[in-house]
Amino acid sequence: MSDFTVVCASFQTSGKGQMGSEWVSECSENLTFSVFLNTSFLTLENHFYLNCAVSISVFNVLQRFKVPQLSIKWPNDILSGRKKMSGILIENVLKPSSETYSIIGVGLNVNQTEFDPIFKASSLKSVLGENFNLDELLILLVTELQYQFELVKRGCFRKLHMTYEEHLFRKNKPSTFKNVEGELFSGFIKHVIPTGELQVLVEDNILKVFKLKEIKLLY
Question: Residue 115's closest CA among 130, 125, 105?
């Protein structure tokens, strides 16, 4: 299979998100697609930059349409205000030949306007008040992803990291988090380190680093 082989579904019966969460999408109203990439050139330590590239790609395309209050919620949800417009799931496959492949799954809410309040979701139509052509949006997204993936291949990691953090939701703002024990605590997002963990300033000016499954940002 070659790079940027794209599989697009008009309807998903078992859409997946980060950490086993569910992605719900109305039939033929939204974009749900996967992109195949050979990422054998990336070391394990640098896979976070692929996440940056994909997040920035979706962000940039939505920005073209002047979607208000856009941000990237760690690790890779795209928000308008406090509502989720897009979710990304990257799954890596290691072959016996030592080649690594990444399957990039993207869900983007486009023309759907009714959502279960529990999901805190929004869509392009909800925000901008018009219908969008799904095929045209898909072409824009894949084209932007090709550009950002080229930056990954060229090793432009600092540029990708800076752009990602420039748009990071709640950075340097007082925020509430929940840990794996279900306990709530307050802190300030300071940084996402190069391996993708979140650096949070907590009580007593202590900097702590959290992996994806160790913390949840509640806003």
Answer: 125
Name which of 148, 131, 26, 18 is nearest 74 in CA terms. Answer: 18
Nearest to 119 by CA among 75, 169, 85, 88: 85
Query: Full-prediction pTM beyond 0.85?
Result: yes
Tens digits of per-residue pLDDT, 149-183? 999 999 999 999 999 999 999 999 999 999 999 99
* Average model confidence (pLDDT) across the chain: 92
Distance between first and last Cα of the chain = 40
Residue 195 to residues 48, 97, 116, 209, Cα–Cα distance (Å): 6, 24, 34, 11
Percentage of the chain modeled with pLDDT above 90: 84
* CATH number of the domain bearing residue 213: 2.30.30
Distance CA 28, CA 112 (A): 9
Residues 42 and 25 grouped into a single domain: yes
Same domain assignment for residues 199 and 140: no
Domain extent for 79: 5-166
| Residue 13 scores a pLDDT above 80 | no
What is the C-alpha separation between 23 and 46, in angstroms, rounded? 27
